Amino acid sequence: IRELSIVLNSLLLLGSSLIFFVLANKLVNTWLALATTLSLLLLPAMQITFMFLWSETVFIPLILLSFYCLSRYIENAKSATMLACAIALLALATYTRYVGVAFAFSLIASLLFFRRDGIPKRIKTILNSGLLYSLLIAPLLIRNFLHTGHLSGGERGTPSLRLQEDSFRFIDLIAQELFTAQPLLLGSWILLVCALVVIRNNRANGTTQRNIQTSAYQLYMPLLWSLIYIGFLLISRSVQQVDLDTRMLSVILPLLLLGVIALTRFLSSSLPLTLATLPLVFIMLIAVISGIACHQTILANLRTEQGPGYVNHMRYYSITEPRF
Length: 324
Hints:
By secondary structure, this protein is mainly alpha-helical.
């Protein structure tokens, strides 16, 4: 079984990487897309997640595939098949993890904000999409309710709504993953992005821009999907105990990186590529450093423990104690 899990996880990780690369390559050149994909694989959360037969290993590629299909539909409204595929993949993801419902809301929001159709047509598309998704997951909801009395399939712990505290906790988790929990690095990155956006806008007003267009959905859709997912997790804690740990973060790490890649494309319309890629390269360098440290920790745990040393590793990298 252990050998089978290694093969299965490797294939799922490879599939996730290929989908991410295709999405990234639509925004930047092949070499930069490839470098970003390798950086994603080095991030501690990705290494940890694909060490085990967890539902996230199936959930992540399904979400990325759905994101890709929706992107294709937004680019070309005539490809209704792409929208149907996006919805079907989200339904499959929901069967894998109930939090897939969050991305159904993300899909609806994307259709509302990023389609160029008139309002009546957009509303019709949203209603049809919502109906199709509901029909696809109805057997799961009915089964869950009949067996457990809860649509989500069970109740975990005591609910606790601490919206402000949980929000800062999730921000800390992102900072820990992408900026090695260093407030100075996070602050420097934010200042760098702000400065480059200001310079880019000033140059755009005074010079002719390059023929590099960034659609609104390319720039904002990864962020929208990530924010709705985070909001869903935070609100869910008022209904049942939901862990906020590295496993939860790994789901949206590809989307967050896609957002940074889209920012790179946006900046490159008026800035030299060396300047436009600085925010992305910043994160990629940190990913390499933290990824190597993560790998060394995993190897050390493997040498000293019978199991893969997950608990010790999580206590080092995660802001919450693991619950398994």
